[in-house]
Amino acid sequence: MATARTLKTSFTSGEVSAELLGRPDLRAYANGAARLRNVFIQPTGGVQRRPGLRHVATLPGPARLIPFEFNTEQTYLLALQDGVMRVFVGDAETAVVAGPWTTAMLPQLAWTQSADTLLVVHPEMPPMRITRTSHTSWTVREWLYTWPPTHRFGDPSITLTPSGVTADIDLVASGPVFQAGHTGRMFRIGSRLVYIRGVVSPTQALATVDGAFANTNATADWEEPAFSPVRGWPATLAFHQDRLAIGGSRDLPNRLWLSQTGDLFNFDVGTGLDDQAIGFGLVSDQVNAIRGLFSGQHLQIFTSGAEWMVTGSPLTPANIQINRQTRVGSPVVRTVPPVDVDGATIFAARSGRGIYEFVYTDLQQVYQANDLALVAKHLVRDPVALAYDQVRRLLHVAMADGTLATLTLYRAEQVTAWTRQETAGAFRSLAEIEGVVWAAVERNASWRLERFDDELALDAALTGESATGPQDTWLGLEHLNGLAVGVLADGAPHPDAAVLAGKVVLDPPARAVQIGLRFTHVIEPLPPDLTSATGVRAAPVRLVSVTFRLLETAALAVDIGTGMRPVPFRRLDTPLLDSAPVRFTGDLRLRALGWRRDALAPLWRIEDSTPLPLTLLAVTTETRSTE
Q1: Which residues on adjacent β-strands are paired with residue 217?
Q2: Of 184-193, 282-291, 536-545, which has the strongest mean pLDDT?
Q3: Residue 532 pLDDT more than 60?
Q4: Which helix (H) or strand (E) holds 198?
């Protein structure tokens, strides 16, 4: 009979998929787990019960969250909803402003920010410029071009003939050109801009010349606006090297425009001088609808079929180069803006099954795309939003099914660890501001604005404190009406209570409470490694003992083959705790009995919904098995 002792000091591979059950030789197997739910992996390798979510506001419908950082002291959260923009400073709503976007547009909105201005685009919406003058004063309006991007659509042989050289004129086309949506837009004829005041017919329009023509001859040197109600609007954008870059539109999905240097709304290509605008299309052997732009070491272009690098230092019409780097592709049905993590750009794959790291290699001077979810494919299902918490080194990825996958990413220490967060609802949108991760959460057919809060251990939670002594009735819980909620009263777990008419009644009363929805954390190891020099040994196997090294842990429930039971220090043998549990730091050894005949069954399992802290640093198991 063989005895083995295994020390697991790290969970730095996170939760891994079942496909790795036959590969105990891999490092990911040694440092991974079968299930990690509602926990975060620390960069040092430990597992910690995740913080709860603080309820901030009830939203009237679906929302897209956008961070707006004006400076280090003034940060805002913008919640774009059907026809409105809500502005939050901290947990307070400070402004509500009308906007042209609809609920259907929210998934494909794209944005970029410079100083006090946020630019928002959508292929079916005129591009919007959002500006801030104070906490409560915001404006949303269509941006105005100094010189708009233009493009020649249709038959290149069609000519335009002006009726005069200046001021108000008629334009006559030799073929069908004009549509009603051209009204109010600018055409380029030669080196002049012409404002279309009205459309008489497909071959005639009323116009106003900016400046004067040299003559009234018919000319084929003309272009219509690249963006208009006729041709659609920009799909994505970014600022790079003091230029505004616009990527794709409804009718020109693979075209890139770069404004003049220092003149962000001037797209006049002129004669190709160094500071003048640049425009070109991505031409290759596959469809390349531009889905994202990112300004990093280079301007990075994320398309539906590949990833590209734009080089040139500085970018000028003469030296700009664009090269395809990888062929992963980005989502088409929604916009998932890439995020920067330690100089690498993280983006969601078009397949919906991967989160990739787009990183530049100095040695080869090319970009590589590495799949960060290679061993945890089951956790990645159609990402809809990314948010990176740089303080905790956590990348949160909201999925279409409402779950939240969290990646602890620390390249220097080779930490790539996934876990899954679940709540009584669905995560729909994310934003990160100064280390605080915000979420739009759908609960009970209503939308809520919530944020992760290290002081909380419940979801959709609120806290309260009485300055006059213990009280039994706590109000302000309308968002939890009709639900059974968890309660921490003066730091101690309390039996679940029902929320009726927005209030909870406690017995006994308490001075300070935390009230919200419970969530259950799960830590389940991979099956024991039963391989030997001659192959895989069959069960049975016996767990003799397991030792947990804990840090500041107040509650622990473990199943070691006899059912889920709390450990003694948890002190839940009484129905109610009259004081907050003492947090335990140290080693806790539990002895086990009985043989396991299922080789794939875990030797132990931690599962608990008690709203108290848990941090697991290491696990030592002692087992016996037959030869």
Answers
A1: none
A2: 184-193
A3: no
A4: strand 192-201
For residue 94, the model assigns a pLDDT of 96
Residue 291: left (phi > 0), alpha (psi -120 to 50), or beta? alpha
Whole-number pLDDT of residue 533: 45
- Per-position DSSP letters for 207-220, written without gaps between them: EEEEEE-S----BS
Tokens read off for 239: 């600022």
Which residues is 587 bridged to in the sheet?
A: 549
First to last CA, the chain: 6
Report whether pLDDT(29) > 90. no
Q: Residue 21 has what DSSP assignment?
A: G
Amino acid identity, residue 353? R
CA-wise closest residue to 421 among 35, 83, 84, 4: 35
Q: Which domains does the chain show, CATH number per domain?
A: 2-36+527-625 (no CATH), 53-142+335-452 (no CATH), 150-225 (2.40.30), 459-517 (no CATH)
CA–CA separation, 327 and 267 (whole Å): 30
Mean pLDDT, the chain, rounded, equals 92
277: closest CA among 293, 294, 289, 264? 264
Partnered with residue 177 across adjacent β-strands are none
Query: Within a 10 A sphere around the Cβ of 96, how many other Cβ atoms?
Result: 13
Determine the longest span between alpha carbons in the chain, in angstroms.
102
> What are the respective helix, strand and coil percentages of the chain, to the nearest 5?
5, 55, 40
CA atoms within 13 A on the CB side of 495: 9
> Stretch 2-26: mean pLDDT, rounded?
86
The pLDDT score that the predictor gives to residue 1 is: 59
Of 328, 330, 346, give the one whose Cα is nearest residue 338. Answer: 346
At 27, is the secondary structure helix, strand, or coil? helix
Query: Amino acid identity of 90?
Result: G
Mean pLDDT, rounded, for 551-579: 74
What is the dihedral sign for C-alpha 250, 255, 259, 261?
positive
DSSP string covering 142-175: E---SB--EE--S-TT--EEESSSEEEEEEEESS
For residues 258-276, average pLDDT: 95
CA-CA-CA-CA torsion sign (239, 244, 248, 249)? positive
- Residue 283 reports pLDDT greater than 90: no
**Pick from 360, 368, 415, 409: nearest CA to 387:** 409
β-pairing, 14-15 with 32-33?
Answer: parallel
* Of the listed ranges 22-36, 433-447, 547-561, the one predicted with least confidence: 22-36
What values do phi and psi take at 12, rounded to 5?
A: -75, 0
In three-state form (DSSP H/G/I as H, E/B as E, the rest C), the secondary structure along 66-122 is: EEEECCCCCEEEEEEECCEEEEEECCEEEEEEECCCCHHHHHHCEEEEECCEEEEEE
In the predicted structure, residue 576 carries a pLDDT above the cut 50:
no
Kindly state the percentage of the chain with pLDDT values over 90.
80
- Give the rounded distance of the alpha carbon of 351 from its chain centre: 17
